[in-house]
Specification:
The chain is mainly α. It has one domain. The chain has 5 helices and no strands. Helix 2 runs parallel beside helix 4. The model has no long low-confidence stretch (mean pLDDT 77).
Length: 161
């Protein structure tokens, strides 16, 4: 995990340095601007999608633990923890449905190279033309992860969990 943060931080520092060079050294602007635009175009949305995928399950588990503390009436539960848990619950429910809406609305554009460069992590390795619903694999996986956390959260006294 540390390695991901280190590499991500290093790349962020490089991009910031390039942006500052472009801003303060006008003669480099013509050389640096297209490179920065290409980096932004290829990495922004796929990076957001990848980050959502990595953090979704871990954050969902944390939210489930906080909800279990509310259900059990824990003295360690604070108001801020409860409010964050409520906001995260809305996030866990809205993000997969937003992804479903986005994919179904733009199904005809997903095969285009410009869209693949931006959003390919939403439907990577999925056959786009078999069925209308095959592109919903990723959002359904996120919903399934939410259910995996919700089952032991709402059935706290079951000995098999």
């Amino acid at each position: 995990m540390f390695l991901y943060f280190f590499i991500g931080g290093l790349l962020l520092v490089i991009v910031i340095i390039l942006a500052l060079l472009r801003k303060f050294l006008p003669f480099l602007k013509e050389k640096i601007s297209p490179k920065l635009q290409a980096i932004k175009k290829k990495t922004l949305w796929n990076g957001v999608i990848r980050s959502t995928n990595i953090s979704f399950f871990q954050t969902c588990i944390t939210c489930g633990i906080q909800l279990k503390m509310v259900i059990n009436g824990s003295k360690y539960q604070e108001l801020l923890d409860f409010l964050l848990m409520c906001l995260l619950t809305v996030y866990f429910l809205l993000v997969p449905f937003f992804m479903m809406y986005f994919l179904l609305k733009n199904k005809d554009k997903l095969h285009l190279e410009a869209w693949r460069d931006k959003y390919s992590n939403l439907y990577q390795d999925i056959h786009l033309h078999k069925s209308r619903y095959t592109i919903l694999y990723y959002p359904m996986t996120l919903l399934r992860r939410t259910v995996f956390v919700a089952i032991p959260t709402f059935i706290p006294n079951a000995p098999w969990l």
